[in-house]
Amino acid sequence: MTHLIPYLVVKLSRRKMNNLKGKYGGKWGLVTGAASGIGKQLSIKLAKQDYNLILINKTTSDLNEMVSQLLIDFPNIKVEKLVIDFSDQNEKFEKLEKLVEELDVTVFFNNAGFSQVNDFVNFSWNQIMSEIQCNIVTNIKLTHIYMKKLIKSKKKSLIVFTSSMAHYLPIPWMILYPSCKAFITDFSISSSIHAKKYNIDFTVIHPGPVDGTQFFSIAKLNPKSLVMRITSLFSQSSESVADFIINGSGRFYSLDTSLLVCFLRLFMDLIGKDIIVSIFQLLIKIFHLDSSCLKKN
Ligand SMILES: NC(=O)c1ccc[n+]([C@@H]2O[C@H](COP(=O)([O-])OP(=O)(O)OC[C@H]3O[C@@H](n4cnc5c(N)ncnc54)[C@H](OP(=O)(O)O)[C@@H]3O)[C@@H](O)[C@H]2O)c1
């Protein structure tokens, strides 16, 4: 039940937006996965709070387009654009390290992520490593870079991760994604304990299904499948999720962004994963289900 309280507090206080500038000071914010969906909305919310922005994305054209519009809407802010493929194991992050070292960055939103759908054995090793690299390894690498700088600067600061409701559930045919998000959630919660002495707040966010993103098309999820039709009934807009993230960040260690997510978590706590696994196994056997019930052909 205790996870309902943070949700309700953030939800009920949404009219009074959390002033991150007032709380953390600093001139710069950083957002990964900045050109699309939740990350794009987070960048807009930070620009509204007069943050200059380091924006990171995989696709150059999307980032250029997004930043051009942002600078029209917020002509007083400065933006540094970085194109980085988080799935690339050979990525060096030198330019990012330099920017973080030189600029007064106090709020960091680790938001980039993606999912793939298939039977685990049908993924190539490259596909497996690119998902783990992007959703776990790069997040940890970047946090290591930020923390070294923040500890030196001794400034109060904030590090936020976009995890997912998916990590509360075992999901067949999407095995890597919830596992990666479970890692991120645990990493953030444990970090929030040891980073307290450095004045660094950690928050991890668990959105449910979100509209206005490329997430489902990149995962090649079939919008006509029964699972996706049910899921879409509970979707939130990327803007309202970004509002929730800004509002709750630094106030709680772990946040669910909707009642659906809170109740799913409550349900899983009550029923337990053992029973859920047995139910899934039974359904798969009775209805002869395979990855095509989620995946576009
Ligand atoms: N949408 C949902 O229903 C949902 C629910 C729960 C949690 N989430 C999480 O929310 C976060 C944001 O996703 P979204 O829903 O806003 O989806 P989105 O519209 O697909 O945005 C994802 C962002 O991450 C970037 N990204 C993906 N792979 C990358 C890589 N290898 N290297 C660098 N950047 C990469 C994308 O850049 P490009 O555009 O260049 O590919 C894009 O800017 C993700 O961590 C996702 O797991 C989403």
Description:
With 297 residues, the protein is α/β, with parallel strands linked by helices. It has a single domain, classed as NAD(P)-binding Rossmann-like Domain (Rossmann fold). Helix content is 50%, strand content 14%. It contains twelve helices and nine strands. The chain has helices at residues 4-12, 20-24, 37-48, 60-73, 94-102, 125-153, 176-194, 215-218, 226-233, 238-248, 259-271, 273-287; strands at 28-32, 52-57, 79-83, 105-110, 157-162, 200-206, 210-211, 236-237, 254-256. A seven-stranded parallel β-sheet has the order 3-2-1-4-5-6-9, with helices on both faces. A two-stranded parallel ribbon has the order 7-8. The longest helix has 29 residues, at 125-153. It is globular. Bound molecules: NADP nicotinamide-adenine-dinucleotide phosphate (NAP). NADP nicotinamide-adenine-dinucleotide phosphate binds at residues 33, 35-39, 57-59, 62, 84-87, 111-114, 134, 162, 164, 207, 209-210, 213-215, 218, 238. NADP nicotinamide-adenine-dinucleotide phosphate binds next to α3 and α8.
